[in-house]
Write a structure and sequence with these properties.
The protein is built from seven helices and six strands. It has about 210 residues and is an alpha/beta fold. Strands 1, 2, 3, 4, 5 and 6 form a six-stranded mixed β-sheet that branches. Helix 4 (about 100-120) runs parallel beside helix 5 (about 140-150). The model has no long low-confidence stretch (mean pLDDT about 85).
């Protein structure tokens, strides 16, 4: 029954937004996608233990000074010399909640890098890190981030936690409480992909967004 449900859910996802189409039949393309997802799930824990998830930093450059003032931490998965693009595993990890483990892993790796940069260059750009909304089901999730930043002696104001816009419109989550908690701990908060959903500018007035 679980396999049948998986196939039905995948077909349903295909039909979303297709207003001129009333049904979708589970086909070979979706079958292959399901097999691929099952393969990914079978070795995702091993990949995390083997440090197969790598971080690349996309620089943020000041238009006035032309100097690097920050960077965004992006995850890539390198397995057996092959790079698996994020769109192949991030949506799946969000669905099966593995994203919570991956987010914390990325955060710790960023803390390690910042610590090295401080010692080596005496300069630390503000680093942006994506935080999945899957964390928000636990209002105290930020405690783990605080512990890690303290472990590596990182100033929380040096870290910008990026929350996707879709996270702010989930009725099942008290987003304002979560964001206030993050803010109270000293982290910077950014909204990612703003304007792609249903949010309005008034939302920015009501939330502690930097």
């Amino acid at each position: 029954i679980n396999q049948v449900l998986d196939k039905a859910y995948m077909a349903r996802e295909k039909i979303k937004g297709q207003y001129n189409q009333n049904y979708y039949i589970f086909d070979t393309i979706l079958e292959n996608q399901l097999v691929e997802e099952q393969q990914i799930e079978s070795y995702m824990d091993t990949a995390l233990k083997n440090h197969e998830f790598k971080i690349v930093y996309q620089p943020k450059v000041s238009s006035s000074t032309e100097k690097v003032v920050g960077a965004e931490a992006l995850v890539r998965w390198e397995r057996n010399g092959i790079i698996i693009p994020p769109d192949k595993f991030i949506p799946l990890f969000e669905k099966n909640k593995f994203i919570i483990k991956l987010d914390l892993y990325i955060f710790e790796q960023v803390c390690k890098d910042i610590s090295i940069w401080k010692e080596k260059f005496q300069f630390v750009p503000t680093i942006s890190i994506n935080v999945s909304k899957e964390h928000f089901s636990n209002e105290n999730f930020i405690t783990d981030y605080v512990k890690l930043s303290d472990t590596y002696n990182i100033e929380r104001s040096e870290i910008d936690l990026e929350i996707t816009e879709s996270s702010t419109i989930d009725d099942s989550i008290d987003v304002l409480r979560v964001l206030n908690n993050i803010k109270e701990q000293g982290f910077i908060i950014s909204i990612d992909d703003f304007g792609t959903g249903y949010s309005s500018l008034s939302m920015l007035l009501n939330m502690p967004i930097d």
